[in-house]
Amino acid sequence: MRGNTMEETVGTGRAAEHFVPEGELSDTLENRAALQNADTLTEAMEEGMILEAPCVLCDCAAMELRVEFPSGMRGVIPRDEAVFMPDGSEPRDIAVITRVGKPVQFRITGFRRGSRGERIAVCSRRSVQRSFCQSALAERMPGDVIRARVTHLEPFGVFCDIGAGVPALLPVDRISVSRVSHPADRFRVGDTIRAVILSKTEEGRVYLTCRELWGTWEENAAFFYPGTTVRGIIRSVEEYGVFVELAPNLAGLAEPAPEAVPGRRCSVYIKSILPDRMKIKLALVDVGEEAPIAPGNPALFQTEEHMTRWRYSPEGCRKLVETVFGEA
Known about the structure:
By secondary structure, this protein is mainly beta. It is built from 6 helices and 19 strands. The strands form 5 sheets. The protein has a 5-stranded mixed barrel with strand order 3-4-5-7-6. It is elongated and about 75 Å long.
């Protein structure tokens, strides 16, 4: 099904399954009830229920993850059940090790006895991810607006959990039209954001974009007027001028200034707004403190569940900036 809700609901034959990013299930009543004791864990296994618990360690000799339940009972996720690889390749050790200290989703596939005779739940995270990829994600198309959870930041982009721990990459140049030097200028780990599926590869990789959700040039420029002084953030300093972000999808250019420092707040005077050239001319008034992270959830302009084409440029502008979804 399509929708811009966090939750994906898919019929599976036994019951409808609900897929959410890891970290979203832990505090639900159903999850807490299923983890209470050996009997409830057995019932969850028989129902094929998706559960979530914290991963507390990795036995690096066996590459086996350990999860702990409130009852004091523990579960293990064998290496070959830790990650689903759509292309059939073996997951790297780092993909297993980095789950430590984080919540993981899984199904219980059976029970075994430990070295002291204790009962241990054998779990599969791979099973949940495979179900998500082969059902909910398979129905998703480029242009679909989804919600995702930021898991970590790299200079080249934002890694997001789009359901059951399945990753997707939001490249840094697709965050917004107003360029940022690092994704940390816009996002924090743990943020829940809206994004658009940009593409899916045959190998199972998913790429996202969210600049289409921040509004067009005209929609953003409508909030600003020549002859006014407003606040902005200095994003880059070039020999020919200073680029100042007025909104995530709108920047203007001020003349060079020695006091300009990227990442600082500033006040700018708007000299002119030129739609036919998609330009805003500014004069730097003063430079202030380091700017906080800008809002990372683009929800102001785009409320549709699916996008086919998005045009940023005003009509009549000589420069065309647009996204056409579903085209190579």
